[in-house]
Amino acid sequence: MRRTFLLEIVMIAAAVAFLFPVYTLISLSLKDPAQISQTPLALPDPPTLDNFGKAWSAAALGPSLVNSTVITVASLVLLIALGSFASYFLARVHSRLGYGLYVLFLLGIVLPFQLGMIPLYELVTDLGLIGTHAGMILFYTGIQLPFTVFLYTGFIRALPREYASAAQIDGASHLTAFTRVVFPLLRPITGTVLILNAVFIWNDFFTPLLYLGGSGFETVPVSVFAFVGQYVSDHGLVFAGLVLGALPIVLVFLVLQRYVIKGFSSGLKG
Amino acid sequence: MTSLTVQRRSAVSRRRRRFSANSPSWLFAAPALVVYALVVLYPAAAGVVYAFTDWSGIGQDMSFVGLANFGALLGDEQAMGSIGNTLLLTVAIVAVQNGVGLLLALGVNAKLKSRALLRVIFFAPVVVSPVMVAFLWKYVYNPDPSAGLNGLLGLSVDWLGDPSVALWSIAGMVVWQYAGYSMVIFLAGLEGVPKELHEAAMIDGAGTFQRFRYVTWPLLAPAVTINLMLSTIGGLKLFDQIFAATNGGPGYATETLSTVLYKQAFVFGKFGYSTAIALVLALFVAAVSLVQVYYLRNREVSA
User: Fold this and answer.
1) Which of A172, A226, B114, B149 is the most exposed place for a label (fewest CB within 10 A)?
2) pLDDT band per the 50, 70, 90 thresholds, residue A270
């Protein structure tokens, strides 16, 4: 018992040290420039909310939030639909073609996106999708499919075939058996796919900078990046912008944290 | 009569399809394959082709130059330095992130009152955009002795401005962001270690360290495999954090393959050369992943 108590003290101390950057972030966002230069480490005294209002409008966070939400949600829907269908085939087929396709999909996890960055930029331009939501949705769906297929295929392989067979004996087609019987059984892994991809897509910075920069359809990280560049010396304002920019995904995390942590680990275990 | 035979035959074939050919049509995979080919496979293949050209990124003018880009890479001091930086950074991140992640996992896996809260705290940075984390750390790392990390520790280190320190400072903020990620995967592994094994070892007189070494550690192998792979691939490809915090500086101290290939393409307009560097990066990632899968999978055991 005493040892557990000691361990608890050590872990709490580690957590406090770990939180130092977060303390810096929040306390500076609540200070005026004079406090930041005179007492950078102290608690804000008195705290001010001025930075938040200014940062919200200067970083154009309202429109960026809408853009990020549209792109993230649409990509997730496509990833789940395309990924689960493809994985059902890949997990159930017994042929060289099927195995080859599976390996081909996994290749995408290893390939650095920089290799195809420039040809893809040309392709997206030729399709007239530069600076559009559709271009970004297409990009995220393609780039995250390998990981999605990897997670779904592993899960479906461990699932008994009998559920789908039973439905098919009752006269259901493969399509019906999948959508009515198998897909609902995939709920745990669908949660994982949803969370892992949401965190990646929402936070991705470089691709939207390249494909959406200056289009008026910027996502949150791109807007925050531009905003930080503009107000670089005003740390209170910059940090208020960072707090606002990170808040949506952190709030989603705090609400769903039990499932997030479980999903992350179980998804990666399979 | 004929119609009856046809009917019977089709009924037979339908039944056969139900029971024997019980795998779904490849059309299930077709839509995903089309998008994947369009967004990943075709561009990557085209990138491999560009790596052997002198394309400038503007217009259609390009000619094949064979291995010239790779030859140029060998003679490019900055690019060769960036390979060294990439490898050092990756080794540092992989070692520290997984070491810290494992300690955190062992800590919060014990029956602590605050374990649920601790898990949330250690994991939270994972969900924040890497660019935003880099901006925060740029201030935490500022050289002012009264502010940030210096103020806290009573130091006056120029964390990002001193070329001999900057690369390790980048590793530090990456570890801070992703130690929780490693922790969660290790926790999943720890859940798979049966309590009975620990109890049996305890009865046999094994101490805490011995139980970790001979019971927990071998069973953690799958979690170790996944953690090492993910952190290695992440370390080799690292871009956002460096771009936002140092952009490769001071001098070339934090320049990596990712930042060099970015600059060659978008600052100097050498798209052919840039994709050649990207191809080298891809080969690094592929080689390391293959080696890890091969060696680590071999030592995995099951409970």
Assistant:
1) B114
2) very low
Contacts with A266 (C-beta within 8 Å, 6 or more apart), sequence order: A188, A192, B188
Per-residue pLDDT for B1 more than 80? no
Residue A17 has which token pair?
Answer: 């040290």
CA distance to A56, A126, B286, per residue, from A212 (Å):
20, 15, 30
* A-B Cβ pairs (cutoff 8 Å, strict): 266
The two structure tokens encoding residue B251: 């001098």
CB of A153 within 8 A of CB of A102? yes
pTM: 0.88
* CB nearest to B275's CB, from A12, A98, A115: A115
Looking at beta carbons, which residues of chain A come within 8 Å of B113?
Answer: 8
> Do B188 and A94 make contact, defined as CB atoms within 8 angstroms?
no
How many residues in chain B?
A: 303
Prediction ipTM score = 0.89
Number of residues assigned to chain A: 270
- Is residue B155 within 8 Å of B197, Cβ to Cβ? no
Using the predicted structure, report yes or no on whether residue B9 has a pLDDT greater than 70. Answer: no
Structure tokens, B107: 């800590």
pLDDT of residue A266: 65
**Chain A residues within an 8 Å CB radius of B24:** 88-89, 92-93, 174, 178
| Cis bond before residue A46 (omega within 30° of 0) | yes
Mean predicted confidence (pLDDT) in B215-238: 89
* Nearest residue of chain A to residue B223 (CA atoms): A269
Cβ contact, residue pair A112, B40, below 8 Å:
no
A266 Cα to chain B: minimum distance (Å): 7
3-class SS at A88? Answer: helix
Rounded distance, CA B47 to CA B278, Å? 8
**Structure tokens that stand for B221 in this block:** 């192998």
CA distance A136 to A263: 25
pLDDT in tens, B176-193: 999 999 999 999 888 888
Burial B184-199 (b: 16+ CB within 10 A, else e): bbbbbbbeebeeeeee
What's residue A159's pLDDT? 86
> Which of A7-21, B120-134, B204-218, B240-254 is predicted with the least confidence, judged by mean pLDDT?
B204-218
Q: Report whether pLDDT(B277) > 90.
A: yes
Looking at residue B4, its pLDDT comes to: 45
HEC sequence for A54-66: HHHHHCCHHHHHH
Cis upstream peptide for A47 (omega within 30°): no
With bands split at pLDDT 50, 70 and 90, how would you rate the model's confidence at B22? low
Sign of the four-CA dihedral A108, A114, A120, A124:
positive
The string of DSSP letters for A113-179 reads: THHHHHHHHHHHHHTT-TTSHHHHHHHHHHHHHHHHHHHHHHHHHTS-THHHHHHHHTT--HHHIII
> How confident is the model at residue B26, as a pLDDT?
84
Q: Which two tokens stand for residue A199?
A: 């965190």
Residue B102: φ, ψ to 5°: -65, -45
Burial A64-98 (b: 16+ CB within 10 A, else e): bbebbeebbebbbebbbebbbbbbbbbbbbeeeeb
* Max intra-chain CA distance, chain A: 77
